[in-house]
Amino acid sequence: MSVKYGILTLLFQQENHGYELKVELESLLGIKGKINPGQIYTTLDRLIRDQLVSSAGIDDQERKLYKLESEGEKELTRWLLEPVPYSSTRDEFHFKWSCARKIHFDQENIMLDQQKALIMKDVMELTKLKTELLIKGEEDKYLLISGTLLHLEADLNWIHQIENRNRS
């Protein structure tokens, strides 16, 4: 999970202040946990330094507002379209998909297609490896690969479910 991309997602929707970004980011994460307020402000400082975000003045309660710059939008789009290797799919891709949904990302289908392509590549490689392990009699490794393949199949089914619901 990346606080950086969560903040970029939220600022894509509207200018906001640090505390509201913290609350919204925790909402995006769901049951995954709480965000340290210091992490929000440290990340905002880095985003400003990298010219992805800028200060947008102060709101009516004298809280500093932040806004997304065009380079920040490009960075968010690049990240959303980058497929996630399986080893971190649960942590990263599900969060990425939640961010895309939050902003009604118009390239969600491309994002899903790229993720499916990466999963299928992994399935092909692991299926070959699984066969080799079976022939060699390496039962434990064979079963680990089988488990990973089942997880990949579940992720593909989940993406297909999203695609089917998007068509409705």
Quick recap:
With 168 residues, this protein is mainly alpha-helical. It contains 7 helices and 3 strands, in the order H-E-H-H-E-E-H-H-H-H. The protein is 71% helix and 8% strand.
Using brief descriptors, characterize the structure shown.
168 residues; mainly alpha
Chart the SSEs and their pairings.
Layout: H1 3-13, E1 16-17, H2 18-29, H3 37-49, E2 53-58, E3 64-68, H4 70-81, H5 89-102, H6 108-136, H7 139-167
Antiparallel strand pairs: 1-3, 2-3
Helix pairs in contact: 1-2, 1-4, 1-5, 2-3, 6-7
Task: Explain how this protein is built.
With 168 residues, the protein is mainly alpha-helical. The chain contains 7 helices and 3 strands. The protein has a 3-stranded antiparallel beta sheet with strand order 1-3-2. α1 packs across α4 (70-81). The radius of gyration is 19 Å and the shape is elongated. The protein starts with a helix and ends with a helix. The model has no long low-confidence stretch (mean pLDDT 90).
**Structural class of the helices, strands and pairings?**
mainly alpha
Largest sheet: 3 strands, antiparallel
Strand order of the largest sheet: 1-3-2
Mean pLDDT: 90
Q: How widely separated are the two ends?
A: 30 Å
> Given the structure, what is the number of helices?
7
Estimate the global geometry from the Cα principal axes.
elongated
- Give the fraction of residues assigned to helices: over 70%
For the secondary structure, the number of strands is 3
Helix and strand sequence: HEHHEEHHHH
